Amino acid sequence: MSALHIIAPQSGAAFEMNKGDILTVIDPLGQQVSDMVLFNRDDIKEKISSGKTMDFEETILLTKGHFLWSNRSQKMMEIMEDSNGRNDFLLAPCSPETFKIMYNNPGYHPSCLENLNKNLIGYGIELDGIPTAFNIFMNVHFDTTGQLKVLPPTSKPGDLIRFKAEMDLIVGLTACSAEDSNGGTFKPIHFLVTNASFDKHI
Amino acid sequence: MSALHIIAPQSGAAFEMNKGDILTVIDPLGQQVSDMVLFNRDDIKEKISSGKTMDFEETILLTKGHFLWSNRSQKMMEIMEDSNGRNDFLLAPCSPETFKIMYNNPGYHPSCLENLNKNLIGYGIELDGIPTAFNIFMNVHFDTTGQLKVLPPTSKPGDLIRFKAEMDLIVGLTACSAEDSNGGTFKPIHFLVTNASFDKHI
């Protein structure tokens, strides 16, 4: 019903989902982050919002049972399953400037923002229209002082997270390009979209 | 050089700043939140970004010495002074849906999103273009489980925060309309914009 798709290291993908479809994102080798952004397929000005999601779900850490919300206060996805359980929704996708400013690397470096932009531009979604992503498997630690530390993901080979689409969507998804977020090495991400009627039978 | 402006309870304002200008936001009665959004005056697609700010500043809690960054990884403001010291950058502005979903109030309720929209529309900034705000004086508690609790502000009468503009800006500012964020009562917010040359002499 649906092929397994492979996102090569430091690259990305974009695809459509129908309401009710299930997206499974798999970390095949472990310790690899995947940034995900969501847009309403019928109106791309409606998009995933970290601020609305943390407000309605009353938590910084989103996992099984939580919803991802839009800037228009609509549910976009439900997290159905999350075998690792640690994701981030605080930090923006790594961008060319991330590597210049935080890594002191003035040369070219692949980034999630560039990879989202490359794949989403065909849907009419511009660079400035890409919001803070839901960072699957990203392990950002914080304490009550608010200080943030990006640690290697805790995800093991084969860990997966499953989402149900709550509306028709355009999805952008990456295999993250930032050294610190991925334990220093860049691995692929696998994903699978199954439709609602199929999913009932597995 | 600049008048003191008063934002009435549950309302908002929008205004321009030149690079180098100083904005002072005052809580005259205490325990009152003010949501602030920023746009590049020369290109409103560049705007304040919670994800980029928390990434570059490496903290959830922003105060004196920190910068507020844009979605294009540019500094928009520096926090020069912060007499209270507790602000929030996690939660989206309260919106009509906040009161329907979180307060179970189906009727009309003023909101920061409506008040930002009303005041910013004259600058060509649409509702969907309003990002997660920097929530001055907002007291959102979290622990390492990620769970969020909105508590009354710790700000006392006369507490203030001062920002320096790092680029030419359009600013949206409110006196927040949500019961839980403001200790149950709605108070005004005062603000003042002084220009860089004036500020050197005070």
Quick recap:
Chains A, B: This is Urea carboxylase-associated protein. Chains A, B: Pfam families: DUF1989. Two copies of one chain form a homodimer. With 202 residues, chain A is mostly beta strands.
Could you tell me the strand content of chain A as a percent range? 25-35%
Strand order in the sheet with the most strands of chain A: 1-13-3-11-7-6
What is the domain total for the residues of chain A? 1
Radius of gyration of chain A, CA atoms, in whole angstroms: 16 Å
Give the overall pLDDT of chain A as a whole number: 95
Following the backbone from N to C, one meets helices and strands of chain A in this order, namely EEEEEHEEHHEEEEEEH
Low-confidence stretches of chain A: none
Backbone shape of chain A: globular
Largest interface: A-B, 39 and 39 residues
Oligomeric state of shown chains: homodimer
DSSP, total strands of chain A: 13
- Based on secondary structure, the structural category of chain A is mainly beta
The end-to-end span of chain A amounts to 11 Å
Number of helices of chain A: 4
Organism (chains A, B): Confluentibacter flavum
Pfam families (chains A, B): DUF1989 (PF09347)
Domain DUF1989 (chains A, B): 6-170
Protein name (chains A, B): Urea carboxylase-associated protein
